[in-house]
Amino acid sequence: MSTDAEQAHSPHSTPPPRPAHPPRTAPAQPSAPPPRPTAPPGFTPDPDTPILGVRAKVPFPRGTAGASGTRVPPRPSAPPRTGALFADGGLFADGGRGGRRRPPSRTAAAAASLVLGLGLLGGAAAGSWLGDDPDAPPSTADTYAHARSAWHSVPVDDLFPRTLRGKGEGPGGADRVWSRIAVAPDSSCGGGFDPLLAKALAPVGCKRLVRATYTDATSTSVTTVGLLITTSGPTGMRTLHQRFVTEKLDERTDLMPRAYAAKGTAAAGFGDDQRASWRIRILTDAPVVVYSVSGFADGRKVTDPQSAGEATQRGATSAPAQSGLGNDARGIADAIEPIFRRALSTITETTS
After folding, report:
1. How many separate domains does the chain show?
2. In a domain, 319, yes or no
3. Residue 98, in any domain of the structure
4. What residue spans of 131-233 are helical by DSSP H?
5. Pairing between strand 275-282 and 288-296?
6. How far is CA 203 from CA 51, 149, 233, 312, 349, in A?
7. Does the residue 270 lie in any domain?
């Protein structure tokens, strides 16, 4: 039996164990995101449905039925998308530069505002197209269109009444009465005007010409009144009106309308040489030129014709002024114009 000392120095003895070092601690690794839940067998989820380019924020509600009628679990929400709100990079697109993303709440608010704005604009447009106010006045285009057909839609007695009364329209403010003695068949404008006047009116065109001739209570004067229906639009009529006013074309004796001398009437001898006074008005709210020309019923020639505007001025001493032919030309034209407007208004209301 060996002693404890011998066992300590024996070559075959086992050395004492070495002290263990403390274990090395590995650096903390970030925890991996939890795996995306997979769909249950036999279920194919619907693709995300964009609403104006923005995915729905609220997932498919729990417990609702899918396309097959089975109850499906909720779908996990996807992270917000970046880039253009519209797939085609249109309005509100950020150009795909990967810039700062909008919070989902602001994106949804912007989309909602856009939908609301488009809805309001669309509703306003639909209201203007489908719900026109029946009491609203007709547009200029409607007025022009109806005026071009009024000449054959209005009875002759309504357009050219058998009797016209002019209160205070005679010389010195006397009342005048004119009686219709002839109505010309509707025609083109050929022969209705002196050549230079026809050239001046040419820019607005001629669709139709309607005329009638009146005489005064004593049958000593005759006056032809006419309505030239043009083919022009508002711009052309305004341009012509401005030219007549600026250049005073309605006062030139070489720009007079011609009379309608109906055979077998007091106007049978009413030719070019018998013209004494005239009036021309270019309307701008309708494609119409209203004019008149007056003369003596006995066929006498007039050497100093004068426009109605000049012949009705205070102190005028010309033959047209003293005989009242200027008053006849002005009074009859001014009476027919509102009659035509009323007829046009009636037609417009009837066809609207």
Report:
1. 1
2. yes
3. no
4. 140-153, 156-159, 195-201
5. antiparallel
6. 57, 20, 11, 30, 30
7. yes
